[in-house]
Design a protein that fits this description.
Elements (H helix, E strand, L loop, with lengths): L4 H8 L15 H32 L1 H12 L1 H28 L6 H29 L5
Main location: membrane
Organism: Mesorhizobium australafricanum
Function: Membrane-anchoring subunit of succinate dehydrogenase (SDH).
């Protein structure tokens, strides 16, 4: 550090702190972008589950019964529910980006509304898919 009185006075002044996560609230568009990337990664794992199900169905009745048992357990259903939500959220996020690629919806207020709609839409679609699945199996009759 310099010995000059001018630079010492500047060094003593309060310097602004960079925003920290404890005081900075990320905008919804940033949060949805991060979640879009996470759901994209989760879809890789979920696609392995779909492949395991198809391979078991093509292999033998015993292999299919094992996979069906695993997917039918509470943990398996929770994973499949999460996979469904990730699929719906990633799809709607992709549509959001497709709209943005046209130049529409880029205003801050509109982009935030679309981001919230993506989250709400993914939850609603996931619930509708699972309700339809249970009704098709006669589970809610």
């Amino acid at each position: 550090m310099s010995k000059s009185p001018a630079t010492r006075a500047v060094a003593r002044r309060e310097r602004p702190l960079s925003p920290h996560l404890s005081i900075y609230r990320p905008p919804i568009t940033m949060t949805m972008s991060i979640i879009h990337r996470i759901t994209g990664g989760a879809l890789y794992f979920g696609t392995l589950l779909v492949a395991a199900w198809l391979i078991a169905a093509a292999s033998s009745q015993a292999a299919f019964d094992r996979v069906d048992w695993a997917f039918g357990s509470w943990l398996g259903r929770l994973v499949l529910f999460g996979y469904t939500w990730a699929l719906m959220h990633h799809m709607l996020g992709g549509l959001r980006h497709l709209v943005w690629d046209t130049g529409a919806g880029l205003e801050k207020h509109t982009a935030s509304k679309i981001a919230w709609a993506t989250l709400a839409g993914s939850i609603v679609l996931t619930l509708l898919i699972w309700i339809a699945g249970y009704m098709a199996r006669g589970g809610l009759a």
